[in-house]
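Most newcomers find our protein records easier to grasp once they have seen one. Read left to right, the backbone structure tokens trace the chain's path through space. Once this layout is familiar, the rest of the handout is easier to follow. The record below serves as our worked example for the rest of this section:


***
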Amino acid sequence: MNIGLFGGTFDPIHHGHLALARGAQESFQLGCIHFAPANIPPHKQRQPIASYFHRYAMVVLATMNERAFVPSLLEAPGEAPTTAIAGKKGQAQHAQAGANYTIDTVRRLKQTLRKSDRLFFLIGIDAFNEIATWHEAEALFRECEFIVASRPGFSLADVANALPEKLRPKSAVTKPFAKQPAKGDLVLPGATLHLLENMHQNVSATVIRDAVAAKRPLTKFVDSAVADYIKKVGLYRSR
């Protein structure tokens, strides 16, 4: 079976996330997509975010009518490493803080899968642009294939150049990609990427927070059940 893993802050989960998942499911016949909110995202430790439990609850509400979408506790509190991890400067500090690393989540999920299962990691192209800075990025590409949601303005060269240095093609190879939109497949030694077109929606956490502050309806951005939850719990009222 083809399996998808969609990790992220999901603060909150919105229509853009769901559109990416539906597009990936249809294009790659994914039998199941695990939505795994991060307890402590490594790249957002200095930014205020809603509690894990609120974000997980919203994922449950947003996916409850999608049979193949599964809310996942893979990165729930207590699942992240609690001891220092040797590595580049700053990584040990993050590990001590209990940050959720995608490489750990992927490996934990793979322990539950069959050998015949094929694992895809779902990610938006803006987040993918920072992939080279992720913990054990090179190893991550060996563990699974990537489905990257593209948007206008990005080329295949942009995608290739975002890869970790050891996986990145030489400039002579990527130069012809500069005029090609980010779509199709990019198969390289050590990395397999699939680019999804027309997945971008003009919605973000900032836009949703602005709407909450202005007391505007949220159903343009999030599922109605999520909108009700945000209102009842009083999330995002303070900015």
Notes: Strands lie at 2-8, 30-37, 69-71, 118-124, 145-149, 184-188, 191-196.
